[in-house]
């Protein structure tokens, strides 16, 4: 498997002999794998996952699952749809506290933490959406 140009943490094996493509992506400690059973059993598990100490693998042959905030849906025709609508819908607005009477009143540490958390969520969304193909 070789890293792709889109993301250095996304690896792919090109289509060969009518099989493939085989692909794997990683984010921190989350790994997303899109391979056939033969490739998984003969290559990916023994040569990569076993050496990394991976003990638990969840499979989804078709259906929907969440990976790092993205809803990934694989259809019966093996097509894949990725969206972040659920992530967006679950984002909560920042509550303005009644005690802040003037815009120039300083934020408390709790308020700053809340703002930073929301900025992190928005940044995560911006980075993911930027990378998703149209």
Explain what the structure shows.
This protein is of the alpha+beta class and 134 residues long. The chain has a domain at 1-59. It has helices at residues 37-52, 85-89, 109-131; strands at residues 2-3, 10-13, 22-27, 30-34, 63-67, 70-74, 80-83. Strand 6 (70-74) and strand 7 (80-83) form a beta hairpin. The radius of gyration is 20 Å and the shape is elongated. The mean pLDDT is 75.
How would you briefly describe this protein structure?
This protein is an alpha+beta fold. The chain is built from three helices and seven strands, in the order E-E-E-E-H-E-E-E-H-H.
Output the keywords.
elongated, alpha+beta, 3 helices, three-stranded antiparallel beta sheet, 23% strand, 134 residues
Helix content: 25-40%
Average pLDDT works out at 75
Oligomeric state of the chains present here: single chain
Beta strands, count: 7
**Unreliable stretches:** none
Biggest sheet: strands, sense, closure? 4 strands, antiparallel
- Tally the helices: 3
Strand order of the largest sheet: 1-2-3-4
Order of helices and strands: EEEEHEEEHH
What structural category arises from helix and sheet content? Answer: alpha+beta
Q: What is the C-alpha radius of gyration, as a whole number of Å?
A: 20 Å
Percent strand equals: 15-25%
What is the end-to-end distance? 25 Å
Shape: elongated
